[in-house]
Amino acid sequence: MKLVQILIAACIILSGVSYAAELTIGLIPEQNVFKQMKRYKPLGKYLEEKTKNKISFTILSRYGNIIESFDKMKLDGAFWGSFTGAMAIVKLGIKPIARPVNRDGTSTYHGYILVRKDSGIKNVADMQGKVIAFVERATTAGYIFPRSYFNKHGIKDINTYFKEYYFTGSHDAAIHAVLDKKADIACAKNTVYEILSRDDKRIKDELMIIARSPDVPSNGLGLRQHLAFDIKADIKETLLEMHKDPKGKLVLEEFGVVQFIETTEADYAPVFEIAESAGINLKDYEYINK
Amino acid sequence: MRRKIILSLFALLVFMASGTVIAVLYMASNTSQLKNIIMLHEIEELRRSLIIKIQNVQTNLYTVKPDYSRDFDFIVNEASDLNETARKCSSCHHKPDLARQIETVQSRIKDYETSLSYYLTASANADRIAKLKLDSASIGSELIKLAEDMSHSATKNLAGLTVDTMKRMNHVTTILLITIVVTFILGILVSVNLARSITNPVNELVNATRMIGSGEYGSTIDYKDKTELGELAEHFNFMSVAIKDGYDKIQKEMTERQHAEEALRTSEEKFRTFFKASPVGILIYPVGPNPFSRLLKHSMFNTAFHSFFGYTGDELNTKSIMDLSYPEDIARNIDLIHELMEGSRDSYSMEKRYINKNGDIIWGYLNVTALRDMRNKPSQIMTTLVDITERKKMEEEQIKLEKLESVGILAGGIAHDFNNILTSIIVNIARAKMSPNFEKLFEILTEVESACKRAKELTNRLITFSKGGVPVKKLSFITDHLKDSTLFALKGSNIKSEFDIPDDLWPVNVDVGQINQVILNLVINAKQAMPDTGSIHVLAKNINADAQNIYPFSGQDYIKIVFKDNGSGISKDHINKIFDPYFTTKKKGSGLGLSSAYSIIKNHGGSIDVESAVGEGTTFNVYLPAVNDTSSIESGKTVNRFIGECKILIMDDDTTLRLTLSKTLQQLGYVVELAKDGTEAIRLYSEAQQDGKPFDALIMDLTITSGMGGKEAIGKLIKIDPEVKAIVSSGYSDDSLMANYKKYGFCAIITKPYEIEELHALLNTVIKEKA
Questions:
Q1: Which of B274, B480, B485, B539 has a 20 to 30 A CA-CA distance from B334?
Q2: What ipTM is given for this predicted complex?
Q3: Is B375 in CB contact (< 8 Å) with chain A?
């Protein structure tokens, strides 16, 4: 019986699935890397089934590595953050394909500057000499927006204004840092904030939002410029139509969104504006954490 | 048997099943334990895998630079597998402490993932990074320790479980072996037992069947038990016995059938013999139209049948029933035969007249029966014919007798009254004659007396006709009476008489007066048949009882008296009527002579018949029972007249007669008292006895209308006076008392009408005897 099963499996394997292409899609450490991988795996499986292209994900340890990693690791695409996506458009010529629509119907996110309610910090002035946990230099909500916020509030040098600043690498790490009092201030995106608060009511009970950024596009898929047109088209069509497919709908539900919508370079305009207000030139921005 | 087989197999199966079940249960528990062991091994493998993965991650922590290489993915993948592995572990374990340990491992793996994620994604100062790394490594080491501890305890459990399981496996093997061996042995035993239970009785049955087949019916087998085979044996035995009984019965029936066939042949032969020899005529003829007209040659009849008609068999074949039948009896017979053919009757009987060969009328008693075929339809007619000619003659004679009797009764009644009247007349005449003053009256009265005597004779004849009044018999030799009466009757004629009477002619017990009358009547009849001249031959002879057997003298001696004349003879048409009362062919004559003679002879127990033909004379044959003992013949007695003063009691219901007789006897010197009936007579007699003035004699009428008669009164008188002298008087009576008066207590009789001298002489005799 076991031999038969092996033979059947071999037949399936040998006869079966022959993929058109093998694509490696990068995943930025938006949240816990294991959660990230777990979250995107069903989506990757669905895309494999529909497009007949092998989809494998790779976690990029840092937001900042994504541009180099994209080249070095010969990635075919990635689910870009808003800032990294903007940078990828500028630096790599990435073509945005689609981005998810949240359950609340939004396809954007914004950033929060969070403090503990019992920290006594109510404004920027109260933040002086505190420890602040950023996410990454290459994140809108996790760095660019707060820098823009601080700039607007006259804080030009964060090295001296704050006691310490560091980069947690992921939005959930930053939120946990302030929640666990490892930092006084955290900067994170609202979507991660919402996800974590569903699982941990301390987040809304104990943390307070000091500031909110403008809306920027959700983390969407962007593919390399020279990827085959039909592949790009298949993936785009699959993502944009998957909410009409019952199976696709289940995948979307598990993913935590309602659908994917088309995304173009124009959708990243708010990012460029925030970057500019933060005094950042995307073309030569040093986004790698030191 | 079925039950036995089922029970045996069931027991075997139960035993085998029990052993198997026990073994299976052991195996099941063993299997479960083996599964646990396997699972434990798998879990152990998982744990080892977990430990190896954690160790790999730990190693990569310190060796992999996750900035740009895909080894970051390796760490992530390995760490992701940790959670999956831990989940598999938790799905297997059931012990609470182990479950808690697995939960702890799972929880720590999550912490490990979080810590690794922080480390891998964080970009901060070196201290912070080193701390993050240390945190991750620390959790990893803790995980390794936890897993190793679990593995250690699991290994111990595994060893124990394995040993225990092996022991149980050995038990299962033992149980199975025992079960198999014992089942095998039991199976053999059961098979042998069942086989023997079946084959033994079957062999017996087969043997018994062979024996029956070879002719030994009734062979039985001894096998007995409560199973179907026992029942089969029992029924087989019944069947065998039944076959034998049936065979014996068939044999018996065949023997009986042979006997029956033989008996049938014998019976048929007997029937043929009986048919031929039967004294009863038998005729069998087929059913068909006009049976009366068909010639009898198409029928079957026996000797008695054709002899009845006086024909031979061949002669009868040319005749038909119609030819043989008396015409007046044919119509009734035809009606009856039609009813028989139609089925409204099965048979009929009738007395029928036929004409025999001589032309004589003969009587036959006919019984006709329809013989039916299988469809119950008449196929043949069987007729039996008995000659009843003689019986019919006797019936005719009986009828004649009855006629005579009825007329006799009438005559008797008339005679009784007439005699009373005559007696009265005669007595008064006697009184008148005793008166000397009436000489002319005497002459007239003498003529009247003579007429009355003739009337008395007439009534006597009538009485004689009605059984003659009972004959007063006495044993007498009638030789003289034959001659005297014959000569007396022939007085004044030219007819010669011849007598041929033996001297030793036997005496007969007769009323001489009546016999004389008979002789007179017969001779007068002969005389009348020979008006000019002729002769009459009277002969008599003794006939011994053994010599002939003629009705009505079977077994008795008798005398035969023959009166043969050579007169004109009697025609066939008249000969059967000559003894009828008032039948006569003469211009003169009452027609009572021969009928009277007939009646008298019958009353004497004799018989009379006639043989005659026209122009051939007539012969009368008289038969009288004879008596060989002559000792009782009475001699005559002399009556002494006695005239004296005697007291007489007269009892009679006729007042005139009483008074007349009283006066007459008084004239003779008697003292007379009168009574009208027996009751009065008894009273008077009794009073006289008591007064000391008894009666010397009584004259009592036998028959008293509306009162006690003499017959009843004498019995009472005898009780009063055993020596009573009573004379019974009667004008007519068929009472046997008149012939046996002494037996009743009377000492004499006197028949009316009687003459006074007769009465006076009788009184003298009676009183004298008393004296």
A1: B274
A2: 0.71
A3: no
